[in-house]
Amino acid sequence: MNPYVLTILLSSLGLGTTLTFASSHWLLAWMGLEVNTLAILPLMAQHHHPRAVEATTKYFLTQATAAAMILFASTTNAWLIGEWDINNLSHPLATTVAIAALALKIGLAPVHFWMPEVLQGLDLLTGLILST
User: Into which EC class is this enzyme placed (predicted)?
Assistant: First the structure.
C-alpha cells in the first residue's frame, strides 16, 4: 500500500476516535464511529486473500447494523425527550438500544459473535488495531 494512503487512513482512524470522544451530540459521535469504520475497511482488505475479504465484509455488515441501531436510539430519544445530547439519554427504550448497539460495535459479550471470525481473517497488525 502506498505510504501516503496508509498515512491518510491511520490519520482518519485517529480523527474518528477523537471526534467520537469529543462529541456531546449523537450525530457527531455516530459520524466519528463511521469515519473509523470507513478508515479501517481498506486496511482490512489490503491483503487480497478470500479470508481477508470475508472478514472485511462481516465487519462492515456488523458495523452498519450497529450504526443503524445507534441512529435509531438517538432519533427515538430525540423524538420522545426532545434532545440529541449524549448525556440526556433518559428514555428506557433509547437507552437499551444504544447500549446494545455500542456493545455490538465493540464486540462485547454476548454480541461478540463477529469478533473471532473477523480477527481470524486479518493479519496481526490490523487485528491489533481492530481489537484496540
Answer: translocase
Distance from C-alpha of 77 to C-alpha of 30, rounded to nearest angstrom: 15
Residue from 34, 17, 108 nearest 71 by CA: 34
Cβ proximity of 42 and 26 under 8 Å: no
| 45 Cβ contact list (under 8 Å, min separation 6) | 52, 53, 56
Q: Give the 3-state DSSP-derived string for the chain, with helices as H, strands as E and coil as C.
A: CCHHHHHHHHHHHHHHHHHHHHCCEHHHHHHHHHHHHHHHHHHHCCCCCHHHHHHHHHHHHHHHHHHHHHHHHHHHHHHHCCCCEHHHCCCHHHHHHHHHHHHHHHCCCCCCCHHHHHHHCCCHHHHHHHHC
Euclidean distance between CA atoms 28 and 76, whole angstroms: 16
What's the confidence (pLDDT) of residue 63? Answer: 94
Residue 68, amino acid: A
Tell me the whole-structure pTM to 2 decimals: 0.89
Q: Locate the domains of the chain by residue range.
A: 3-131
